[in-house]
Write a structure and sequence with these properties.
Number of helices: 3
Distance between the termini: 37 Å
Structural class: alpha+beta
Largest sheet: 2 strands, antiparallel
Helix content: 10-25%
Order of helices and strands: EEHHH
Number of strands: 2
Number of domains: 1
Shape: globular
Radius of gyration: 14 Å
């Protein structure tokens, strides 16, 4: 049995800004055209990178805390842990019917 290929360019996904908590249902193309930094157009599912809307910068993201400020796991906030859990469970965690915490 061959794996099922999913065209994520055509599917609507939840785009949740980890800075301002904006939450929109968009296709990856719509999100990219609106300035979102979100997989699959920007980065990869399951890999920590900024998840931001077109209005927010990356300086308050989980990625920034880990990569630029060298924060260790015990230095992350509860919200950053929630973002990490959501990223690690992508793309399932950002399907429209998924229950998502910030």
């Amino acid at each position: 049995m061959e794996p099922i290929a999913i065209d994520f360019e055509q599917i609507v996904l939840r785009h949740i800004c980890e800075v301002c908590d904006r939450d929109e249902l968009l296709t990856p193309a719509q999100a990219f055209d609106s300035g979102w930094d979100y997989p699959p157009r920007m980065g990869m599912f399951g890999v920590v990178s900024p998840r931001t809307c077109g209005n927010c910068g990356i300086e308050s993201t989980l990625w920034w805390a880990v990569a630029m400020e060298n924060r260790a796991g015990d230095e992350l906030t509860e919200k950053q842990y929630a973002v990490l859990a959501r990223i690690q469970s992508e793309p399932e965690s950002i399907l429209p019917e998924a229950e998502v915490n910030p």
